[in-house]
Amino acid sequence: MNNNIFPCLWYDGDAKESAEFYCKIFDGKITADTPVVLNVELFGQKLMLLNGGPHFEKNASVSFMVMCETEDEVQEYWNQLEDGGIVLMALDSYPWSKKYGWIRDKFGVTWQIYLGEKKSEQRIIPTLMFIHQNNGKALEAMESYTTIFPNSKIESVLKYGEGVNDENHEVPENVQHAHFEIDGYSMFCMDNSYDHKFDFNEGISMVIMTENQEETDHLWSSLTTDGGRESMCGWLKDKFGMSWQIVPTRLIELMSDSNQQKAQIVVQAMMKMQKIVIKDLEEAYHS
C-alpha cells in the first residue's frame, strides 16, 4: 500500500471535529494537527483534512468504500456514521454483498460499508463515480491513470451487462464496478447515468507526494493534458474534472523547517506557483 498517495477532504472550519470523529469510529489517530491541515491515520492509511473555507463542498462523486470482514464490523461502523448522517442506500443484503450500505455522514463525506473478501491490504478505498458528461468514461479514466502512474494496473472490471439484473437501465457496456491501482494504491470506480446534483470538485482531491522535479513534471503534464486544467499551489484538474494535488516531499520539508521565518518565505513562494518548482522553493529558502 502506498502512503505517498492519499485523499484530501475539504472543510469549512470543522476538520478537527471530523478527524476526531473518524479516529473514534475506525480506531485511528491524528498524526498532524494544525489550524489548516490535519492528517489522520485509519487502518494505517493516511487521510488529509484541510480547513480551506466555504468554497467547496464534499459530495458522493468520490466516496470511500470500507472493506469489512464481519457483519458486526459493518454494523458498528454504520451505527456511528448514521449519527447525524443521511442514508443513501439502506444497510441490507444485496447481490454483491451480504451486508452493505451507503451513507453520507454529518460532515458530508460518503461511505460505502461493505462486507466481502479483501481486495488488498488497503481497507479504505476511494471510489470515483463517473456521471453527467463523464458517464461511460470510467474505463477510459482507468486506462489513462494506469498509463500515467508507475506500478499501476486494472485489477477487475464488471460491466452492467454482465452484472446482476439492472433496474436502473444503465448502458450494458458501462462500468458497474471496477478496481484499479495507481502506484500500488487501490481505487474503485463506476459509471452512473443518474442526473445527480453534484460532480467532481475540489471538495475531495487526491494528493500525490513526489520524490523529485522529474516525477512532479511528468504527473503535472500528464494529468493536465487533453482538457485538464492547472490551478494554484500544486492543484490541478484532469480532463474528467477530478482534482489532484502534486506535492514534492521537499516542499513539506522546507515548510516544516524549525526556522519559522524561512518556512514562511517558502510558503509565500509556493502560494505564487501553479506547478510546484523545487529549485525555486530552495532559492526562496536560501534567500
Automatic annotation (TrEMBL):
Biological process, per Gene Ontology: methylation
Entry keyword annotation includes ATP-binding: no
Gene3D superfamilies: 2,3-Dihydroxybiphenyl 1,2-Dioxygenase, domain 1, 3.30.720.100, 3.30.720.110
Molecular functions (GO terms): methyltransferase activity
Superkingdom field: Bacteria
Pfam families according to UniProt: 3-dmu-9_3-mt
CDD domains in UniProt: PhnB_like
Keyword Transmembrane helix: no
PROSITE patterns the UniProt entry points to: VOC
Domain VOC: 4-116
Keyword entries, A-Z: Methyltransferase, Transferase, Ubiquinone
Matches recorded under PANTHER family: PROTEIN YJDN-RELATED
Name of protein: 3-demethylubiquinone-9 3-methyltransferase
Lineage, opening ranks: Bacteria, Pseudomonadati, Bacteroidota, Flavobacteriia, Flavobacteriales
